[in-house]
Amino acid sequence: MNSLLQDFLLAFRNVVRQRRRSGMAIIAVAFGIITLLLAGGFIEWTLMGMREWTIGSRLGHIQVARPGYFQLGQSDPFAYLLTQDSADRSALEKIDGVKIIGARLAFGGLISHGEATISFLGEGVEPDKEALLSSTLFITKGQGLSTGDAKGIIIGAGLAANLGVDVGDQVVLMANTPAGGVSAVECHVLGLFSTVSKAYDDAAVRLPIKTAQSLLKVGGSHLWVMLLEKTEDTARVLAKLRDGFADRSLEFVPWNDLADFYNKTVTLFRKQVGVIKVIIAIIIVLSISNTLMMNVVERTGEIGTALAVGITRAKIMRSFVLEGVLLGVGGGLIGLAVGTIAAHIISLIGIPMPPPPGMARGYTAEILVTPGLLFDAFLLAAGTTLLASLYPAWKASRMVIVDALRFNR
């Protein structure tokens, strides 16, 4: 331990005495870490926001359906109906971590207003539950669904524009029934809404589930959508549901299995962060290697003297490796401190963002610095400087004593 401490002290002194060169190396490392924290933090916030938007727009945390509904439900949706007042649903609502459960009935049909008739995708929902389940559904005009107004509906902003309807207008919904007939119901528009998906807004209609059941002449629903207290509890609650309800004719699907766009976005962003890490690692390696190689050249005479008095080559090599690690740790700590402060300041100001492709509106972004990101950044700083110091340290330890002693003469 005493020998290792002495090596650290010697390495620290060697770093300090080359103030300008060591300072430039530390700044290069710190700059790379700050860049990683800001870029990675922006991506972390974006993914976290997209995750919550996805959950809060339509998916919930866990969806419950009859087995096979997600694979075959499009071809025969009425064969997979869940009972409206079910003991299973009551039992699910009592599971620890479950905040609320809402029923949904999905269907397609035609909506007419005046001379215009357009196809739509409809969802019968429970208005009192959807206020929480669809927290990111934004009412752009009018009001949301009301339990006391069975014939009041809300329409996606894009569909309303194509149909030429506004709040208060009367529309007619038409849909096929399970018996093969056509059913219709006259409703009035309570409000217009938008979500994170413009494609959904261009075709969506939401109405009270009782009105949807009356239109389709069915009872029950296709889905029970579960909202949990915390997104992080999804895996735990899902495992509990699958174990506790294994003997029931129910299928439990987590939100991430249904969010194909989100999953692909995560994969893309993770690759982008990986590229940023590689670029930063190359910058740090080149910077530290250059600094240490210059130190080796300037201290050739010292190295020769040290070898001549009996200091081992391993000790020489260890000394230069420790110098590189000290530069990396110092730069890494400074980068973490400055990057975290900068991320906090930028988050307070906000980053205005335009609407992403396929989404209806823009947003104000922030930078989320997570413990995992801090650990990765510090590991990158320490690991790359350790790697960068190996060749200069090996070069110093392999010097020929006589040549090294003659170097400065």
Describe it for me?
The protein has helices at about 1-15, 20-60, 70, 85-95, 125-135, 155-165, 200, 210-215, 235-245, 255-260, 260-300, 300-310, 315-350, 370-395, 400-405, and strands at about 60-65, 100-115, 115-125, 140, 150-155, 170-175, 180-195, 205-210, 225-230, 250-255, 350-355, 365. It is elongated. It is an alpha+beta fold. Helix 2 (about 20-60) packs antiparallel against helix 14, helix 11 packs across helix 13 (about 315-350) and helix 13 (about 315-350) packs antiparallel against helix 14. Strands 2-3-8-5-7-6 form a 6-stranded mixed β-barrel, surrounded by 4 helices. The protein is built from 15 helices and 12 strands. The longest helix is centred in the first third of the chain and has 41 residues, at about 20-60. It is about 55% helix and about 20% strand. The relative contact order is 0.18. The chain folds into 2 domains: about 1-55 and about 260-405, no CATH class; about 65-250, no CATH class. A hairpin with a 5-residue loop joins strand 6 (about 170-175) and strand 7.
Task: Note the main attributes of this structure.
six-stranded mixed β-barrel, 56% helix, elongated, alpha+beta, 12 strands, two-stranded antiparallel sheet, 409 residues
